[in-house]
Specification:
Blueprint: H1 5-43, H2 45-54, H3 59-86, H4 89-97, E1 99-104, E2 108-109, E3 112-119, E4 124-126, E5 129-133, H5 134-140, E6 143-148, E7 152-156, E8 159-163, E9 166-171, H6 174-191
Helix pairs in contact: 1-3, 2-3, 3-4, 3-6, 4-5
Length: about 210
C-alpha cells in the first residue's frame, strides 16, 4: 500500500514532535533527579557522617566526605539547570553576576598565622576573604591554596633553625552549597517550570520549558 506525499509529511512531523516532547520530558526528569539527589545529600548529612565513622573514618574525614558529596550533588544540579539559566535574564544574573557568598579562611594552621591566599580557581580575594560571583564561579571552585607563616631564621640553643611557611588547601564551606541549593530552587519556582511535580508522574511531560533552553 502506497503512502502519498501529504501523509508522509504528516508522519514525519508527528515523529519530530514526539522526539522533541520526549527530549523535553527527559531533560526535566534529569533536572528533578539531580535536585532530589542534592536534597537527599543535604538532608542525610548527619546520618552519612555517622555511617562513615562507623566504617572507621575519623570525625574530620567523615565530615570531609559528606561535604564533598553535598558539593558534588549541588554542582550536578546546577549543571542540569544551566540551559535554563543561560536563557533567562534572572538566570544569567545568578549564573554570572550575583554575589553567591563570601567566606573567610582560618587565621591559623599548625600554630602559624595566615600569610596570604596563594591561589583560587575562581572568585575574588581580599585578605582572608574569598567571594564567589555567580554559579559559574561556584562550579569552578574546589579549594583555595593558603600560606601560613613566613620563612624565618631563629637562634636556638642548638644553633640557627630555619622556619618555612606551610600551605593548606581550604575547601569551600558546605553552607555555600546549601545556600545555592535553596536559591536555585527559588529561582526555578519563579520560572514556573513545575518544580513541584513528582518525578515519577506522567504530569512531568505537561511542563514545557523548551523555549528557555
Amino acid at each position: 500500500m502506497s503512502i502519498d506525499r501529504d501523509d508522509s509529511e504528516t508522519t514525519e512531523t508527528i515523529q519530530a514532535e514526539d522526539i522533541e516532547a520526549f527530549t523535553d520530558k527527559a531533560r526535566l526528569r534529569s533536572l528533578f533527579n539531580a535536585r532530589d539527589k542534592a536534597s537527599e545529600a543535604i538532608r542525610d548529612a548527619s546520618l552519612n557522617r555517622l555511617k562513615a565513622q562507623e566504617r572507621g573514618a575519623s570525625k574530620q574525614l567523615a565530615q570531609k566526605i559528606v561535604n564533598q558529596r553535598i558539593a558534588a550533588c549541588v554542582r550536578a544540579y546546577v549543571s542540569e539547570c544551566e540551559p535554563l539559566l543561560r536563557n533567562t535574564d534572572i538566570g544569567k544574573q545568578l549564573l554570572y553576576e550575583s554575589e553567591i557568598e563570601s567566606f573567610t579562611v582560618p587565621y591559623q594552621y599548625q600554630g602559624k598565622d595566615f600569610t596570604q591566599v596563594l591561589d583560587v580557581p575562581a572568585g575574588e580575594v581580599d585578605g582572608r576573604q574569598i567571594t564567589l560571583h555567580g554559579l559559574d564561579q561556584y562550579l569552578r571552585f574546589d579549594a583555595a591554596t593558603v600560606q601560613y607563616g613566613e620563612t624565618t631564621v631563629e637562634q636556638t640553643p642548638a644553633g640557627f633553625e630555619h622556619q618555612s611557611p606551610v600551605t593548606k588547601t581550604v575547601p569551600m564551606p558546605v553552607r555555600m552549597s546549601e545556600t545555592i541549593f535553596r536559591e536555585l530552587n527559588d529561582l526555578l519556582a519563579q520560572l514556573d517550570i513545575g518544580l513541584q511535580a513528582e518525578t515519577e508522574s506522567d504530569d512531568v511531560a505537561s511542563y514545557d520549558y523548551s523555549d528557555l533552553i
